[in-house]
C-alpha cells in the first residue's frame, strides 16, 4: 500500500537521497512516486518487488484465461479437437498425420 507521506517524493529530493530511498523501497516493498513540478511523473520500485508484480500479473492472466475457457465451455463455444485440427491443417497446408 502506498504511504502518501513517505512514498511520494520530488525527483530532486530522490536524486539527493537516492541511497536512502532505495533502502526504504527494499525494506517496505512499496514503490515510490516521483514528482516533477508537483505532478506525478515516475514510479520507481526495487527489482524484487517488480518481479513479484510481474508474477502476480502472470498469475492473474492465467486465471483469467482459465475462466474464459470455462465460460466458453459452459456457453457451448467449443468444438471437437479433430475438427480444429482438420481446419488448421487445411488452412496452413499441414499434411495429415493419419497412420
Automatic annotation (TrEMBL):
Cited Gene3D superfamilies: YefM-like domain
Organism whose genome encodes this protein: Roseofilum halophilum BLCC-M91
InterPro entries for this protein: Antitoxin_Phd/YefM, phD/YefM_antitoxin, YefM-like_sf
Family: Belongs to the phD/YefM antitoxin family.
Biological function: Antitoxin component of a type II toxin-antitoxin (TA) system.
PANTHER family hit by this protein: ANTITOXIN YAFN-RELATED, PREVENT-HOST-DEATH FAMILY PROTEIN
Residues forming coiled coils: none
Protein name (database record): Antitoxin
Organism superkingdom: Bacteria
Amino acid at each position: 500500500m502506498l504511504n502518501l507521506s513517505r512514498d511520494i517524493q520530488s525527483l530532486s529530493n530522490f536524486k539527493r537521497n537516492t541511497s536512502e530511498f532505495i533502502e526504504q523501497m527494499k525494506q517496505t516493498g512499496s514503490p515510490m512516486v516521483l514528482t516533477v513540478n508537483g505532478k506525478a511523473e515516475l514510479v520507481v520500485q526495487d527489482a524484487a518487488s517488480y518481479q513479484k508484480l510481474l508474477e502476480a500479473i502472470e498469475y492473474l492472466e492465467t486465471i483469467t484465461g482459465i475462466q474464459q475457457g470455462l465460460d466458453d465451455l459452459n456457453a457451448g463455444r467449443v468444438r471437437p479437437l479433430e475438427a480444429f485440427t482438420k481446419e488448421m491443417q487445411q488452412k496452413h497446408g499441414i499434411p495429415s498425420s493419419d497412420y
